[in-house]
Write a structure and sequence with these properties.
Strand order of the largest sheet: 1-7-4
Distance between the termini: 73 Å
Number of helices: 4
Oligomer: single chain
Order of helices and strands: EHHEEHEEEEH
Largest sheet: 3 strands, antiparallel
Shape: elongated
Structural class: alpha+beta
């Protein structure tokens, strides 16, 4: 059985992970950061829009040389891209976690991405031949991706009828009966 970075013991969770995936680490990290905490259905819709270039993934950490697009405005950034290959890999993992959730009998409408993490895998080496008989490395940057979907419980409203107003020390002294 695979080890996960975050251990979720709840019966209302479904996990999925991929190791040594041949997809860029930096792009995958930015996609994962955008999806963290998102509702499952909303995340699948977002990733589909990214594939069709209707929405863009904001690039915050690995943003050197990233072009600007107006589609980054909803995320509060100007630098954004459409990393289709990373989106397809993460979409595949989400589909796998969805089928794991169906087997466990979880409600798909209440699922939320509680944990998503991208780690660097060992680089794969190739070489490229340059001018004047030189050879340079031609490395790939694969990654490991893991995610956990959790079924959210119904929100419980705070009871406001029995709330006691907290008074400061100064107010308590003023309200104290004088002898």
């Amino acid at each position: 059985m695979a080890r996960y970075a975050k251990v979720e013991t709840s019966a209302k969770s479904a996990k999925s992970q991929g190791s040594y995936l041949r997809v860029h680490f930096k792009n995958s990290r930015e996609v994962a950061a955008t999806l963290a905490g998102m509702n499952y259905k909303k995340a699948v819709r977002f990733l589909g829009d990214v594939k069709e270039h209707k929405q863009a993934v904001p690039f915050r950490r690995f943003a050197g040389g990233i072009g600007r697009t107006a589609q980054g405005k909803p995320h509060g950034v100007s630098r954004a891209r459409w990393p289709v290959k990373s989106v397809e890999f993460i979409l595949g993992l989400l589909k796998n976690a969805e089928s794991n959730a169906v087997v466990k009998g979880l409600d798909l409408d209440k699922l939320k991405i509680a944990h998503i993490q991208v780690n660097q895998a060992p680089k794969q080496r190739r070489r490229t031949f340059r001018a004047h008989g030189r050879i340079n490395p031609y490395m790939s940057s694969p990654c490991h991706i893991e995610l956990t979907l959790v079924e959210e419980d119904a929100k419980v409203e705070k009871d406001t009828t029995s709330a006691v107003a907290k008074l400061s020390k100064k107010k308590l002294i003023q309200l104290r009966p004088k002898a």
